[in-house]
Write a structure and sequence with these properties.
This protein is mostly helical. 53% of the residues lie in helices and 7% in strands. Strands 7-8-9 form a three-stranded antiparallel sheet, covered by helices on one side. A two-stranded antiparallel ribbon has the order 1-2. A hairpin with a 2-residue loop joins strand 3 and strand 4. Helix 10 runs antiparallel to helix 11 and helix 12 packs parallel to helix 14. The termini are far apart. Belongs to the IFRD family. It comes from Diatrype stigma. This is Interferon-related developmental regulator N-terminal domain-containing protein.
Length: 481
């Protein structure tokens, strides 16, 4: 009787916890498998963790790292295979295409992507590199349905980010471009655009290749998605804007792209899609930041936060652009109170464009607060004389991301665009990859880092200083950045 009851429980799946059953890899390729967790929220909307928050979803991470347990009738715990064993099983399923169904491949791909999102798996992936990339490309080019194609694109993006191949860009570029142009599905186009950015900057793309990618993405923005058969599609245009910023953040000189790009991004400020507006504003700030850095590198002088100090014209780039017109337009967006925009979207829009306005007017990075506070306070150790003198200082940069006891200050638009795309691709797995993945650490290497558990000296000292260089000079490979 006891054996019969145990058999019934095992067949029903009731001995597996609800949390374990919800994980993609727990389905082991069954037709009823759950898809990988979708990305939450708007793609282009930045949201940095406060100093009290961790960037990763700790509860969800715990469910990934902790093994599932089957409670037997005798009270014994049978621990499931380790994540490396489960990953090996998923890789085997992906490579064994002849014995798989479309639904089975989709589930295996989602489970594989889920595992390498939350674990740094370079060794396991590289052991099958020669077979794995072609298998993923077969599902991208000839997936039986769009769900399989989307799953393969996510898997490919994470695979490239988990390794530092200097040749994969040449292998995958034409397939990614074809998927973006030829698919009828919005989600396929969005995932293909993400993959383009990661493949270019982490897969061996040259500076020339990066510039070609920027041109392709700019065409999507200028045509409102029409050139990839996605007319007026906000998600696709926002993805193109976000990935444009990610790729552009690695180039040391954006002169060739700046004028045409600024025109396109300024037009998108009038979009009815808030994510598009925010991404366009971010890229505008990125271009002006690059111009300021170029001026400083060439020995130019900065005045009133404007490159060249000539009221908004970026003369060293031969770029005559009316910064005053941009400021007026963004000021209007900050005051936007249309009932057609939700309260949450209005809040995000206002916060983002306040940040961009401060950047344009004062030459600051993202999230700089001009609010003033008392420079010293007798209640927290400051002298009463100082307090009475009425000295104030600005709060300054307030945006940080947190990985365990590491706090990274986001004080440049270049860094902000990288964080945005990494959070889009890795989600809650960003913490694990930052700690273990050299490619991700390189992408965020310009961040000022503070160990929050260490005693502060005035609260403003960091363990490392940001790098001044935006990226490689022309002709150098950008692989591994």
């Amino acid at each position: 009787m006891r054996d019969l009851r145990k058999k019934i429980l095992l067949e029903s799946g009731k001995t597996v916890s609800k949390k374990a059953r919800s994980r993609p890899e727990s389905t082991r390729g069954s037709a009823a498998g759950s898809p990988a967790p979708s990305r939450g929220g708007s793609r282009a909307t930045s949201r940095y963790a406060s100093e009290e928050e961790d960037i990763s979803d700790s509860e969800y991470d715990d469910s990934i790292d902790s093994s599932s347990v089957l409670n037997s009738d005798d009270g014994e715990d049978n621990v499931t295979a380790s994540w490396t064993d489960r990953l090996q099983d998923r890789i085997t399923e992906i490579l064994d295409r002849k014995r798989s169904s479309a639904k089975g491949r989709e589930t295996s791909l989602n489970a594989y992507a889920h595992l390498i999102r939350y674990h740094y798996a370079a060794e396991q992936v590289e052991n099958h590199w020669g077979e794995l990339i072609p298998a993923l490309l077969r599902s991208i080019r000839g997936g039986a349905n769009y769900e399989e194609t989307v799953a393969a694109l996510k898997a490919l993006t994470l695979t490239i980010l988990s390794t530092q191949s200097e040749t994969v860009y040449d292998q995958v570029w034409s397939s990614l471009k074809g998927a973006c142009e030829n698919s009828d599905e919005e989600s396929v186009k969005v995932e293909a655009i993400d993959a383009m950015g990661v493949a270019t900057m982490c897969g061996g793309g040259s500076v020339e290749a990066a510039e070609d990618v920027l041109d392709f993405l700019l065409e999507i923005v200028e045509s409102d998605g029409h050139n990839v058969e996605a007319p007026d599609n906000g998600r696709v245009v926002a993805a193109a804007l976000t990935t444009w910023g990610f790729v552009a953040s690695h180039l040391e000189d954006l002169q060739a792209q700046s004028e045409q790009a600024l025109e396109a991004f300024t037009e998108q400020l009038d979009s009815t899609d808030v994510a598009v507006q925010i991404a366009a504003g971010t890229n505008i700030a990125l271009i002006f930041e690059a111009a300021r850095e170029y001026e400083e590198g060439e020995g130019g002088e900065e005045a009133d936060g404007t490159a060249g100090g000539n009221g908004g014209s970026l003369t060293s780039w031969n770029l005559q652009y009316d910064q005053h017109r941009l400021v007026q337009r963004m000021t209007a967006l900050v005051r936007e109170s249309s009932k057609a925009v939700s309260k949450k979207d209005r809040k995000q829009l206002h916060a983002s464009f306040n940040s961009v306005l401060t950047s344009l007017e004062r030459g600051k990075g993202p999230g700089y607060s001009t609010a003033r506070r008392q420079a010293s306070n007798p209640h927290t150790g400051g002298s009463r004389v100082d307090f009475n003198d009425g000295e104030f200082r600005e709060y300054g940069y307030r945006e940080r991301i947190r990985v365990h006891n590491i706090s990274m200050l986001v004080d440049t638009w270049s860094l902000s665009t990288r964080v945005e795309l990494l959070r889009s691709v890795l989600g809650g797995g960003l913490a694990a990859h930052y700690l273990e993945n050299p490619a991700v650490r390189d992408l965020l290497s310009s961040a000022q880092v503070q160990l929050v558990s260490a005693p502060r000296k005035g609260g403003d000292e960091y363990t490392s200083s940001p790098k001044k260089s935006r990226g490689p000079k022309a002709g150098r490979s950008v692989a591994g950045l």
